[in-house]
Amino acid sequence: MSELYILDRWEGDTAVIEVTDEMDCTHWQQANRSELPTDAREGDVLLLSGQIWQVDREATASRREKLARRLARLKNRGNP
Hints:
Layout: E1 4-11, E2 14-20, E3 26-32, E4 45-49, E5 52-55, H1 57-76
Antiparallel strand pairs: 1-2, 1-4, 2-3, 4-5
């Protein structure tokens, strides 16, 4: 089963991670800050291999670009 992990937010020393499965069902899980890479930021796409978390830099960049384009379209909506 393939799941998409996105670092949603930090709550103190706890990472709140959004998990979306193949059926597009979303749930949340938590991880201790010490379990994630020190450079992990909110919005990063994460990979979980066994017990090791990594930031997927390529997927994160792609996701950020997609969201930026969507936001730009929304800002220009209704403008001639």
